[in-house]
Amino acid sequence: MVEQERNMQFMQIAMKYLPEAKELLDRKGIEINMEDLQPVLHLLTQVMSDAYNLGKQEDGQ
After folding, report:
1. What is the pLDDT of residues 6-42, one digit of tens each?
2. Which of 2, 33, 44, 48 could staple 14 via S-S, CB 3.0–4.6 A?
3. Strand (E) or helix (H) holding 28
4. Do 10 and 49 meet the contact criterion of CB atoms below 8 Å apart?
5. 13: Cβ–Cβ under 8 A, 6 or more apart, which residues?
6. The 3-state secondary structure of 6-22, one letter per residue
7. Residue 32: how many CB atoms within 10 A of its CB?
8. What's the CA gap between 38 and 11, in Å, rounded?
9. What does DSSP assign to residue 61?
10. Maximum CA extent, the chain
11. Where are the chain's structural domains?
12. Residue 29 per-residue DSSP state
């Protein structure tokens, strides 16, 4: 799988959980819009990529 395709899948996964994250923030009284969430989504995709690469390394050993 090409890295760009994998990153797109990671973004889809992050978006799947976005409503739940927004609800948690709303309950805490933290108002946030999609523009403010973009850096968080980017961070989540980086975490997923690092986890993927770690699993790939461990599988190769």
Report:
1. 999 999 999 999 899 889 999 999 998 889 988 988 9
2. 44
3. none
4. yes
5. 48
6. HHHHHHHHHHHHHHHHH
7. 12
8. 11
9. -
10. 46
11. 3-60
12. T
